Amino acid sequence: MQSAAASPSQTKGAMLPALAVAGFALVGGGAALNMPPATGEMGVVFAPWTGQSEALGAIVAAGGYVVDSGRFSNVMIAYGADPGFAARIRAEGAWLVLAATGLCAPAE
């Protein structure tokens, strides 16, 4: 008589969809907890191949001010003085706009 137990490779394959959903939930939940404020300092992440001068130009073109740069050339801390800044910086090519407090700056 043969056992009906699944092989280890079949078990791992069955877990992949659940792991993918869990991964997306963690990333989405983390981003939701760090939504950018309407105005103020924001962490702005551009595509990895974006240079610092391009990122700076995009922030200025969107009507913001550069506060600081990140460790990587595509990560900047920007100040948006009006509520439309986050939408404009995304239109300029930013992949992600997050609250700077807690992520990029000391927690208040």
Layout of helices and strands:
Layout: H1 8-33, E1 40-45, H2 52-61, E2 65-69, E3 75-80, H3 85-91, E4 96-99
Describe the protein in words:
The protein has 108 residues and is an alpha+beta fold. It has a domain at 40-99: Alpha-Beta Plaits, CATH 3.30.70. The protein has helices at residues 8-33, 52-61, 85-91; strands spanning 40-45, 65-69, 75-80, 96-99. A hairpin with a 5-residue loop joins strand 2 and strand 3.
Low-confidence segments, ≥5 residues, pLDDT <50?
none
In whole angstroms, how far apart are the ends? Answer: 66 Å
Number of strands: 4
- Class from helix and strand fractions: alpha+beta
Shape: elongated
Tell me the series of helices and strands, N- to C-terminal.
Answer: HEHEEHE
| CATH domain class name of the domain at 40-99 | Alpha Beta
Q: What Rg, in angstroms, do the CA atoms define? A: 20 Å
**Strand percentage, roughly?**
15-25%
Provide mean pLDDT, rounded.
82
- Please give the order of strands in the largest beta sheet: 2-3-1-4
**How many helices does DSSP assign?**
3
Quick gist of this model?
The protein is an alpha+beta fold and 108 residues long. The chain has helices at residues 8-33, 52-61, 85-91, and strands spanning 40-45, 65-69, 75-80, 96-99.
What key phrases describe this protein's structure?
single chain; 108 residues; 4-stranded antiparallel beta sheet; 4 strands; alpha+beta; elongated; Alpha-Beta Plaits
